[in-house]
Amino acid sequence: MADSEKQSKAQPTASSPKADAGRVKVFNWTPSPWEELRKLEYGADHTFANTVQKLVFAAEPEEFAALEKRLIAVLKDSKSTRTAQEFTCRLLALIGSEACVDALSPLLVDEKMTHPARLALQPILGEKADTALRSALSKLKGNAKAGLIGTLGVRASDRTAAPLLASILNDTAEPAIVREAATLALARLQINPNVEAHTL
Fold first, then answer.
1. Residues 146-174: pLDDT tens digits?
2. CB < 8 Å & 24+ apart, contacts of 44-51
3. I need a surface site. Which of 10, 129, 146, 177 has the fewest CB within 10 A?
């Protein structure tokens, strides 16, 4: 028998069970974009992160909860890079609900993560998000504190924060940037810090 005939008999055809099994095995080896997202670094390949982003952008409202659950898992994974967490926060800002508040709250007091965490919480209405933001305020300082105060002002929904903001405004130990942020936030809440804030 010629060598070419032996080889053709030894190799599985495109439709043979062996070939199909091989294709399944290769398919199973394809990395999960959700797992690869955890390894994201600046300047590295963003292919898998972009895949996740497209899933979020294309999602219907009824799909948000399932996607949010997967994003929360990335956020809480200790193996996730800071870049991955920042990226995840940006996506949670689009589809996040009260379900992600517990995962975002610890990041509010992390100097490196407070900015993306508060922006993720900013559009989430409700007492749970309000409480998380207020609770973090006393643990921050400088620009990070000013930024969080700005978020409270932008939300313009938490009038119970007014006494706290008024106290910050009147605290001469606070840097100017923090006191200015408190002034603007109170204005957004349409509260006179010298009168109304102390009576809420």
1. 999 999 998 877 778 889 999 999 999 99
2. 49/84, 49/87
3. 10
Residues near 57 by Cβ (< 8 Å), separated by ≥ 6? 94
- pLDDT-based confidence at residue 199 (cuts at 50, 70, 90): very low
Buried b (16+ CB within 10 A) or exposed e, 94-120: bbbbeebbebbbebbbbeebbbbbbbb
Which element (helix H / strand E) includes 132? helix 127-137
For the question of whether the overall pTM of this predicted structure is more than 0.90, the answer is no
CB atoms within 10 A of CB 164: 18
Question: Does the pLDDT of residue 13 top 90, yes or no?
Answer: no
Asked if 134 contacts 164 with a C-beta cutoff of 8 angstroms, the reply is yes
